[in-house]
Design a protein that fits this description.
single chain, 288 residues, alpha/beta, Carbamate kinase, eight-stranded mixed beta sheet
């Protein structure tokens, strides 16, 4: 359908198909974890922000949680500092955590807020440090200022939603001593979605979802429950970088999220396809 011009009748049909989903999600909280290639491609970034504004305009309470790994690495490179990773996590010394705070809570966060505003949305950017939203402690001494979440104080986000804003949250946290921590974006999104008892958490990634055969996109598993996910861990179907993502999905459901979707953020309008069409997108993880 995307390769041809839609007739007015076809446009009307698309809108009619979306109607029950619009009714379902109107007034409900949907948390979107935004990162990966969809974040570094300017055209895709603009499209994702347009999709979020559209959802907001039809009454969905969208909360945008974002990372910014490539931007952090780029700034470190400019400052002559080489990124170091252990088990996929960025080793974050005092100088690096200052860079993380500057890039995530500053440049990336405000760029996204500005994009949402220019597309007709009403957005407010905050970091996990604002209102003690994300309290954290040292996750592992060898990683430096990489944080493990100890508490979510969700009221700042609820206040923004109540006032009609799209909260845009950068994933840096703090402790009672004033230390700043770099927080994994997927983990932060699952905790925030859980605290909000969100209708859905959408995890945007660089792959289609959970695949039975990692090399064959046609083997996408469209839906699993958390007990089935445990079996996929055991059999090795969920492996590598997908392990922590699915663990975050399971964590979110245990914390009260209705369901979680892992989807390919590089696919145009994947958020709208997931929420407003019969077809959906990616892999849905449910409590089941």
């Amino acid at each position: 359908m995307s390769d041809k011009i839609l007739s007015n009748a076809e446009r009307a049909e698309v809108l009619t198909e979306a109607l029950p989903y619009i009714k379902r999600y109107n007034g409900k909280v949907v948390v979107v974890k935004y990162g990966g290639s969809a974040m570094t491609n300017d055209a895709l970034k603009t499209q994702v922000m347009e999709d979020i504004v559209l959802l907001w305009l039809i009454g969905v309470k969208v909360v945008l949680v974002h990372g910014g790994g490539p931007e952090i690495s780029e700034m470190m490179d400019k400052l002559g500092k080489k990124p170091v990773f252990v088990d996929g996590l960025r080793v974050t010394d005092k100088e690096t955590v200052d860079i993380v705070q500057m890039v995530l809570a500053g440049k990336v966060n405000k760029t996204l807020v500005n994009l949402l505003e220019t597309k007709g949305g009403k957005a407010m950017g905050i970091s996990g440090m604002d209102g003690n939203l994300i309290e954290a402690k040292v996750k592992d001494e060898k990683l430096g200022y990489v944080g493990q979440i100890t508490k979510i104080n969700i009221s700042p986000v609820e206040d923004l939603l109540e006032k009609g804003y799209i909260p845009v949250i950068s994933t840096v946290g703090s402790d009672s001593e004033g230390n700043t921590y770099n927080i994994n974006g997927d983990t932060a999104a699952s905790y925030i979605a859980g605290a909000l008892k969100a209708e859905r958490l959408i995890m945007m990634t660089d792959i289609a979802g959970i695949l039975e055969d990692h090399n064959d996109p046609s083997t996408l598993i469209s839906e699993i429950n958390i007990s089935e996910a445990e079996k996929l861990f055991e059999t090795g179907i969920i492996s590598g970088g997908m392990i922590p993502k699915v663990e975050c999905c399971v964590e979110a459901i245990h914390k009260g999220v209705k369901n979680v979707v892992i989807m390919d953020g590089r696919v145009p309008h994947s958020i709208l396809m997931e929420l407003l069409t019969d077809e959906g997108a990616g892999t849905m993880v449910t409590g089941g």
